[in-house]
Amino acid sequence: MSLTQKPRVVVIGGGFAGIQFIRKLDKSIFDVLLIDKVNHHQFQPLFYQVATSQIEPASISFPMRNIFRGNLSVQIRLTEVERIDTTARKVHTGIGAFDYDYLVIAAGCRSNFFGNNHLASHVFTLKSTYDAITIRNHILMTFERTITAPPEEKDFYQTLVIVGAGPTGVELAGAFAEIRKQVLPKDYPRIDFSRFAIYLVEGSAHTLNNMSDSSRKASRRYLEKMGVRLVTNTFVKDYDGDTLQLSNGECIRAKTVIWAAGVTGNRIEGLPAEVQAPGNRIRVSRTNAVAGLERVFAVGDIAYMETPKYPKGHPQVANVAINQARNLANNFSRRLKGWPERQYEYTDLGSMATIGRNKAVVDFPFLRFKGLFAWFVWMFLHLMLILSVRNRLVIFINWAWLYLTKNTSLRLILMPEGKLKEQVPRHQTTGNKEYHRNGAEVVDVACL
Ligand SMILES: Cc1cc2nc3c(=O)[nH]c(=O)nc-3n(C[C@H](O)[C@H](O)[C@H](O)COP(=O)(O)OP(=O)(O)OC[C@H]3O[C@@H](n4cnc5c(N)ncnc54)[C@H](O)[C@@H]3O)c2cc1C
Asked: Is residue 424 scored above 70 in pLDDT?
């Protein structure tokens, strides 16, 4: 750092923690370099609505250059961080190395496959807007394929398995059950949607394991009523793109498996082994300083902070990421002023999940409720978390439209043409009839 320049803070990751930290940091004192491998901040809690064609990807993705537009103290580089050198104070990336005076690691998490690489290459994940669009494309393609698939294969295409009954799994299952009933039959009148099977597989005994007993029970009831097949106390052993093997000995043939069964930290090379914490997280102090390293901090999902209230680390949720980041930004100014830094502690304001139209469960510290009112509370609080007023409005209009018409116009399959050809079963058409390559007749396509 030269005497004329402001100290440079390099932030790895523009998720909830990274963005909040930069917003709150006093930029008259510090310059910021934000490095992210994607060019937009992603609102993960609503990924499942993109995957189920309920909202547009653009309404939950915020270009980082737009967030910090006009702020000359914030620079952005679009690249993946490969390695950190804490001795030379450098961050090595795909486009070169960057010096830092202070480093804030806010790299978040990725899906955890518990070492099963075979399974990992065949399942879908929901950790980015791109993942959500991929699921949307794939699901819509499976219905296109169902139309022309031979009768014995139709069930395979129409079987969807979601693994993990935490909030993401439950919300996905509920949303798919909803569009199975309300939306898809109108698009595909010749498909028998009573055969569209939605499984939710969970290793523990309950759905929404981290919520109250009443919310667990209510979510189970809601899902069962909506026709979701719950398989609890069961682990997934393997999946080869065709057949899912379960620990209870059962096998399910399914074209689609979505993995929502846990996360692990996006660790970056170069940190000493001593700071490794459970879940691939980085061990930090109560002020988010990385243990034993000078000028290096970690915040959000990647940070592992033990406190008397949370001796096994905080839950990996948006509120923790946002509040840790705010505290850290304040501490940066306090430190320069010679004031004591503030230690972080999480005040749990509750958790919630929605299971479908008019159905949600809410656990506040002082109150628990479910049903229509909970659903409105869920929608309101999620809308408030959305970054821009424009996007809030777009999402609100989408939700209102869906509620009133039970329809959206977002069911686009967007993929390169070559890929599209691969996915559609090859067949020949003669008059009103279609034939598979193997000669079997396909249903009367003129009516579809
Ligand atoms: C499907 C889903 C639903 C969720 N629902 C909820 C919910 O309802 N309520 C709730 O409170 N929480 C929810 N969460 C959890 C919440 O989204 C996370 O706790 C939160 O995003 C953590 O913020 P973060 O800033 O630590 O990480 P993230 O938001 O994950 O941001 C990490 C950023 O780092 C970038 N990055 C990672 N590695 C590198 C690298 N090597 N180089 C460059 N950039 C990198 C990523 O591109 C990303 O932009 C949900 C999560 C998911 C996946």
From this structure: no
CB 16 within 8 A of CB 33: no
Residue 273 exposed, middle or buried by CB count within 10 Å (0-12, 13-18, 19+):
exposed
Q: Are residues 164 and 193 located together in one domain of the fold?
A: yes
User: Is the model's pLDDT at 62 over the cut of 70?
Assistant: yes
For residues 327 and 320, give the distance between their C-alpha atoms in angstroms, rounded to a whole number: 10
Q: How confident is the model at residue 410 (pLDDT cuts 50, 70, 90)?
A: confident
Residues 120, 55, single domain; the answer is no
* Same domain flag for 204 and 248: yes
**Quick check: CB of 420 below 6 Å from ligand 1?**
no
Output the CA 147–ligand 1 centroid distance in Å: 37
The CB of 164 under 6 Å from ligand 1? The reply is: no
Nearest CA to ligand 1 atom 44: 36
Q: What is the share, in percent, of the chain residues with pLDDT greater than 70?
A: 92
Decide which of 429 and 27 is more confident: 27
Whole-structure pTM value: 0.91
Judgement on whether residues 253 and 125 belong to the same structural domain of the protein: yes
29 closest CA partner among 13, 14, 9, 11: 9
Are residues 339 and 204 located together in one domain of the fold?
A: no
- pLDDT 10s digits, 367-392: 999 999 999 999 999 999 888 888 89
How far does residue 43's CA lie from ligand 1's centre (Å)?
8
Give strand pairing partners of 263. Answer: 111
We report the CATH number of the domain holding residue 227 as 3.50.50.100
The total number of structural domains that make up the chain: 2
**Same domain (yes/no): 368, 246:** no
- Long-range CB pairs of 289-295 (<8 Å, 24+ gap) are 290/105, 293/86, 294/86, 295/89, 295/100, 295/101, 295/102, 295/103
**Mind listing the pLDDT tens digit for each residue in 177-186?**
999 998 889 9
The answer, yes or no, to whether any atom of ligand 1 lies below 6 A from the CB of 381, is no
Do 326 and 278 share a domain, yes or no?
Answer: yes
State yes or no: pLDDT of 338 exceeds 80.
yes
Distance 125 CA to ligand 1 centre (A): 13
Ligand 1: which of 39, 44, 110 to mutate, most ligand atoms within 8 Å of CB? 44
Domain that holds residue 238: 115-261+420-448
